[in-house]
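Final paragraph of the annual report: two paired records, presented back to back.
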Amino acid sequence: MKVLRFRWQNKEAWGRIEGEKIFPLPGHEATFGGNTELSIKEVQVLPPTLPTKIVAVGLNYRDHAEELGMALPEAPLIFLKPPSAVIGPEDNIVLPQGVGRVDYEAELAVVIGKTARKVPPEKAREYILGYTCFNDVTARDLQKKDGQWTRAKSFDTFAPIGPWIETDLDPSDLRVRAYVNGELRQDSSTTNLIFPVPELVSFISYVMTLYPGDVIATGTPPGVGPLAPGDVVEVEVEGVGRLVNFVRGE
């Protein structure tokens, strides 16, 4: 099931999407104003979750590590992106003044469904609501300059997510791709993940409690590159859909 969050007639609502039709989730019928369904063309699609935190994973694709000539990490390399960076489908990624190169990074994102603390890997799927597309936008020059990643990863608009959450999906073999202005830039599979989804959920839950709606961004494949004002960047995850965002200068 694809779960969608949207705004319609100045009301925020939740529904499930089938094709171009949106149907109310149980308990959300009133937000549809007496309609039994809505068209996706008449609503504003919002970020499908409002996380308390985004836990992202660095260097988690074998082919990306090979591209960079780096050794595989012995444990997941995790960092945080703030919820203030979140934007939704067709929102603008804003390139801050004076930051130099800003890159796209296509990723599969995991959305947590219930509070998770010290979860063993074999039980991780019980705590996952579903999966969505994520773009780990990064100010690359600042990442290199600072020697740590907080500033480079945390600007407003640097966490596009969406367009919806797919709740029925096996994350072990999904194609992850990025396009810029229609040109394919990244193309790999989650079979190349060094640490697969259950291991990531478990590892992170032993470090920090994960709450419903929190996001784990599972890492990016090879082919990251710069964005420029006027670009259209798309992240596509097999079985989920395509997240489209526009790029503009500040």
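The closing record of the year follows.
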Amino acid sequence: MENKKTAGHLSALITILIWGTTFISTKILLKDFSPIEILFFRFAIGFIALMAVYPHRLKVTNKKHELTFVCAGLCGVTLYYLLENMALTFTMASNVGVISSIVPFFTAILTYLFLKEEPLRISFFIGFVVAITGIFLISFNGTSNFHLNPLGDLLAVAATLIWAAYSVLTRKISSYGYHTIQTTRRVFFYGILFMIPTLFLFDFQLGLERFSNPVSLLNILFLGLGASSLCFMTWNYAVKALGAVKSSVYIYMVPVITVVTSMIVLHEQMTGLVALGIICTMAGLFISECKMNMKKKGMLAVRRHGSRF
């Protein structure tokens, strides 16, 4: 059991480490590709890779299971990324960054309401407040450039709610007992299927000749193979091993990884407020995770002690 949890934490960490660096690849690709083109190509590549790695067909044993896959594909692939991209066209990236960090809060609420398996704990909410404070410091770096844009910010909030729903659906899927690669591939299939109608709305161009540029090819492969096929598998495993709430807490680390990556790749400077923000964010994650563990360990100790009498 402990080995499974350790593997779950490692999977969540690997996922967030990669997701925290995807902004660089996306930023480079946006010079020649539209957001919807990047989205379609990365998930198409991810689907093909998963098919090549594990070509066995998924035999769904229950129609309700299939419906869950449909909802997961719609939420985790199509709606989330479309809403996030649309939000970025109406509001600032810093706004979207902070709002997206509310995912663990929504995940905790939805998990409590629909799965009844992870109780709401005060330590989680304390950690949430501390982490969000740190993320504010990282995102705005002491400047006064925060401007409310109702449409863009509401779209960002909707995206976080959709991802929280995806995490709950993933937790549900993990209880079905199917192979992780097969379930991830099925989710990608439905996500791409729902994405196809939107391609006509956003002026999608196939333009495969653009991949003759090695930089574009390497970056889209990184997004498709790493950020999509690998990360969705590791994230799904983390949710299965840790639960939707505990795995979602790792999302607090995304701004931290983004800042560190920016320093290494883009040579951006570390400021005092950013450093303080990183400390607060990591402290929030620690409080959310370790306090819950301590409480559970304490309860187990009491039970063991009580069983001796």
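The two ends are 26 Å apart (CA to CA). This concludes the annual technical report; the extension proposal builds directly on these records.
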